[in-house]
Every structure is written in C-alpha cells, then in structure tokens.
Amino acid sequence: MTPDDVLAELTALQAGDVPTHGGATMAYVYDSGRADVDELAAAAQASFQWTNALDPTAFPSVARIENDLVGVAAALLGGGPGTVGTLTSGGTESCLLAVLAARERWRAAGGPGRARLLLPVTAHAAFRKAAHLFDLEVVDVPVDPVSCRADPAAVRTALDDRCALVVISAPSYPHGVLDPVGEIAGLAAAAGAGCHVDACIGGWVLPFLDDVPEPFDLSVPGVTSLSVDLHKYGYAPKGVSVLLTADPELRQAHWFATAGWPGYPVVNPTLAGTRPAGPMAAAWAVHRLLGAPGYRQLARDTRAATLALAAGAGALAGLRVVGTPVTTLVALAQDGPDGVDVLNLADEMTARGWLLQPQPPFAQSGGDLPATLHLTVTGATAGRVDALLADLADAARDAAALPRPVADPELVAAAAGIDPAALTVAEVDGLLELAGVGGGRLPERMAPVHALVAALPRPVAERLLAGVLDLVYRPAAVPR
C-alpha cells in the first residue's frame, strides 16, 4: 500500500467513532475549540515521537520538559518548597502511583495487617484498580445523598491504624462536586494517614476561577499528594498527567530501581519503563502557548457555559441538577417519580448527535444515589450551549413518552445464583447473547442494557462487562 492509501484507510476506520472535536462528545475527549492549540500540540508531539523518556540522561530534553511542567503544576496547586512530582500516562496511573506510595510509606512505618484505602463511593474507579493491584482493602465511605459530597463524619468513623490513604475529589467525576478537602485532610493527618486529592479533572480549572468555595490543593494541611491531568483541561493530547507529592520521600516510595540483573541498571518513576515523550512535549508546548492568561480565559468561559447549561437543564420539566457543580461537570437526574428517565434521555441525545454519559443508580448506606447523566463541558462546548439545551429539551419530551427501561426479571433472578468467578469465557458469551449484546455488538438503544447492569449483582455485572470488552477485542483473521 502507498502512504496515501494507508492514511485513507485509517480515516475510513474513524467513520464510526464519536467526534473528538466540536463539543458534542461530552466525555472522554477535551477540545479547547482552538485550532492553534491543536496544530501546535500535533507538531510538538510529532517532533518528540521517537524520543524515549525511559532515560532522561540520554534525552535531557525530557527532564527539562518534565521539570517545567511539574514546576508549573506545583506553583498552580499550592505546592511548597519540598513539593516534587512525576509525569505519568494519565489520571489512572497518577492515582495508582499515589496509592502505591502511600502503601509503601504505611508499611515502612510498621502499619499492622493489611493496608486500607478509604474511598468515598464517588472516588474514581482508578483507586479501586489500585487497591486490586497493590493489595489494599477498600473501605467504602458513603457520601451525602443530596449534596453527593464526601461525609467527614463517615470518614472519621472509618479511620483506624490500618488506613494508609484517604482519597477526596476536586471535583468528583460522577457529580462534579467538591469534597470537603480541609476537614477530611485534617482527619487523615490526625490519624497518621495520607490524604490524596484527585484533581485529575478539575485541577487545571479550579485555580483560574473566582468562585471556588474552599481551598482544595496542596496548601491544605494534611494533603500529601495530588493528581491533575494535562490531557483534560490542559488541552494536551492523550496521555499525560502530573502526580504531585508534598515531599520528596513520598515520591521515592513509588519509584522502582534495580541493579539485580545483567542488563543496564533500571530506575522507573512510573509503572511503565519506556514512556512516550510526545504527549509530554505537546503539553509543554500548549502551556507555553496559552500560559496562565490563556488557561484562565478558557476556564472562565467554560465555567460560564457550565452554569448556563446547569440553569437551563435544571429548568426543564422532569429533570434536576445533582449537587452543586463547582467546575465544568454537570450531572442530571430524574426529578420526581414521574420525571424523565435519564437512561432513555441518553439514547435520545445520542440520536441527536450528542454523547452524554449515563451513570447507573448506586446503593449506599445512608441513602442511595440516583441514576444520572454526566456532561463534561469543554472550550468547544462553550459556544454550543443554546443548541445543546434546545436538543436536550426536545429529547426530554421524547424520553418522557417512552416506557421506563426494566431489566428482564427472569434474567436477574437467574444471575443471583451465578458465581461470576466460575464462569468460563464461553458461558459469559452465552449470557451476553441472552442480554442482547452478543458478539460485542451494542444495541442502538442502550437504556435496557444500563438498566440490566444496575439490576444485576455487582460481581456478576462486572464479569459481564468484562465479557463485552472481551468480545470487542477479538481479532479477525490477520490479512496476508
């Protein structure tokens, strides 16, 4: 094939993807709406696409880029004289490393038994992944069912000498609300536990706003680490994030070094060895282009659009805004027993060219959390709020006329007796056929699938969700 043929084929492959630009995809991607940002990022990434960030002594440009970005992040987010940081591949890796470092510090201090990770139920799923990988016990902490903020009283009750780390969000991804960082960080410090602020999605927005209700960053006593993604509201390409630690000793706790083999001595600050330098260079270039004034303007424009969206959506019959959005995230829920089902609403918005993210209901002690529809507002969406609200009003009317999605009771009853750990791949395939998602082909309307996921026992639902991805990632015959 010629280069043009290959590129044409790649372009054709993208025909079924959701758009990455234009502001209609309100999850997964972050579009500044500025062509100059995209062009510069692409050029910077291309110029470093062959550079290996594994060894900054061989590629000192990587060390300069990383130090510059960590320095900017530390200055922006309340870092003190001892603050250091690491560039990672994304928010998940930043969260993983924060948990690993806290566990290692806890073990070094002689923590008894198995370390615990205290998570408000709204904390990002990446922390559950960290607990799974690094063998910590997750302690679920309920959030206030109305405000959806972490509950300090529940954290105080859960804290003990086995707690290695408490996680709080600025803001939480599901509802876009700011946890009470100061109060919970103080509780963690008093108990001798670390406290991580997950600012992956809000850390490059909150510092540029004037209406943040309370401090949230490393300047808050008791906060030991903080994560912020540059491939979100830093508007850099995927994937680059920053993990900041309040002191150098904590950063050392997530590094790995070995001279115990015949090859070159290995020192890795992240989970990966080889690290692509392209996204780092792109993030550095975009920051040099925009600077604090550019980011401030984008953040304030996007925040204003978020407030307009929340006001307009909350005024629609049958819908309400959950909690108090503090940055650029909005969560919509059904208002009252006869309100608009948000799972149906998601399908109606998909039909109108918008990707809004359905979030199932969640059971917790002290009051369950409702199903919601998550909207991430970016710079590109800011100019389309009126169009979005018009489509949302139209979609809400159509969704209100639809029957509510209900899981097949026989399928739910059968699932209650299943041991998910004992299921083979073939058995999962068969169950997915019964559920209407066989072959990895998702139905046009996803509301019934989401309703089924919400109704199933959580371990069974997780096994079936993994089965869907397993079906998606089954290669066809390799062409010769």
Automatic annotation (TrEMBL):
CC cofactor: pyridoxal 5'-phosphate
Positions of modified residues (N6-(pyridoxal phosphate)lysine): 232
Membrane-spanning ranges: none
Keyword vocabulary terms for this entry: Aminotransferase, Lyase, Pyridoxal phosphate, Transferase
UniProt cross-references to InterPro entries, sorted A to Z: GrpII_AminoAcid_Decarb, PyrdxlP-dep_de-COase, PyrdxlP-dep_Trfase, PyrdxlP-dep_Trfase_major, PyrdxlP-dep_Trfase_small
Organism: Geodermatophilus sabuli
GO MF: aromatic-L-amino-acid decarboxylase activity; pyridoxal phosphate binding; transaminase activity
Assigned protein family: Belongs to the group II decarboxylase family. Sphingosine-1-phosphate lyase subfamily.
Keyword Lyase: yes
This protein's name: Aspartate aminotransferase family protein
Signal sequence range: none
